[in-house]
Give the backbone structure.
Amino acid sequence: MSSGTTPEPSAEPVAPLRVTVGGSAGTAPYEVLIGRQLLGELPSLIGTAQRVAVLHPEALAETGQALREDLAAQGYQAITVEVPNAEDAKQAEVAAYCWSALGQTGFTRSDVVVGVGGGATTDLAGFVAATWLRGVRWIAVPTTVLGMVDAAVGGKTGINTAEGKNLVGAFHPPAGVLCDLAALDSLPVNDYVSGLAEVIKAGFIADPEILRLVESDPEAARTPAGPHTAELIERSIRVKAEVVSEDLRESGRREILNYGHTLAHAIEKNERYRWRHGAAVSVGMVFAAELGRIAGRLDEATAARHREVLASVGLPVTYRGDQWPRLLETMRVDKKTRGDLLRFIVLDGLARPTVLEGPDPAALLAAHAEIAD
Ligand SMILES: NC(=O)c1ccc[n+]([C@@H]2O[C@H](COP(=O)([O-])OP(=O)(O)OC[C@H]3O[C@@H](n4cnc5c(N)ncnc54)[C@H](O)[C@@H]3O)[C@@H](O)[C@H]2O)c1
Ligand SMILES: O=C(O)C(=O)C[C@@H](O)[C@H](O)[C@H](O)COP(=O)(O)O
Ligand SMILES: [Zn+2]
């Protein structure tokens, strides 16, 4: 990924695409920029801040350092805060380490956090920004597919606890999101594909054109060089932006973005976060589709389409059959649960998400049988 100071020799400057998020119900609007070599946009987002903390994972140490040097050259007092890769970053101890770094730098309310990395890093960076001095501004620079299309947009920030995924957090939207597509070139294929689960989720809940683009060449969809990469990312961001703009705090419609996540979060916890989020969401969506079908909501063809399109890009569609009691136990503390009432997002048809409350235990078991290996 470019640090923003060394333009590629023959690259014509291309204006980034801009998607506006928020702006209703008293929330400040911000922009998601999609393009290449976007880091030149950072100073205008940082504005008059004196100090900037660049949070990055170990894997992006060079990028973090290059960014810090750019910002320092522009007169900011910039520090890097290196955090563990992936889910190991989303822990209270790591948040506490970040708070110390801000404290030791004399971070004030006018200073800015920049989170550069995948969804785990931006979830942590946003959470640190939400909690430091009860809230400072932050900017997301997602470097994974999943980060760009989902995690960096919408202001859900947080960390895990021993009891489960994302159980501590805050709604704290960023001041801006910079999606530099060049970052995806260094992403391991497994992580690239994991992000496609959230892309495909956006297809099933809101934009079926996404499904058609993936289905037209699943092999090409697995790489950043695929012909539809930019369109898939843009369409998914538009779905997310539209939903969170209407319901930032998940008091209703935003729950549809949780499609497949009730089971997914239980799988992630059960696997001690060694499964990628997107892989778990893939299995979770097949489960939700089967649950919808068994509950008489979803037609067989659309349920089967889940399995087909997810498997076609190499995502898992089954999970260990012997773990059901543990998964069920964890699902009881899902954020959508109300009291003892389990609630799932299912489809009434393609792009028609809805809530299924208190499903029949037999239906849950039958849906589980469809994903058990
Ligand atoms: N806040 C939200 O709305 C939201 C939405 C979806 C997912 N999430 C969260 O996002 C997380 C998953 O994010 P993810 O899939 O991006 O994975 P991740 O952040 O765990 O990153 C995966 C790995 O890729 C490395 N990496 C990141 N960018 C790279 C690059 N450009 N080149 C090489 N390596 C790179 C990371 O260091 C890590 O090791 C989960 O914690 C999930 O809960 C949050
Ligand atoms: O933005 C949302 O809302 C989502 O549910 C998007 C999900 O893809 C994402 O994984 C989110 O972090 C899940 O949130 P949680 O509230 O179920 O922890
Ligand atoms: Zn997700």
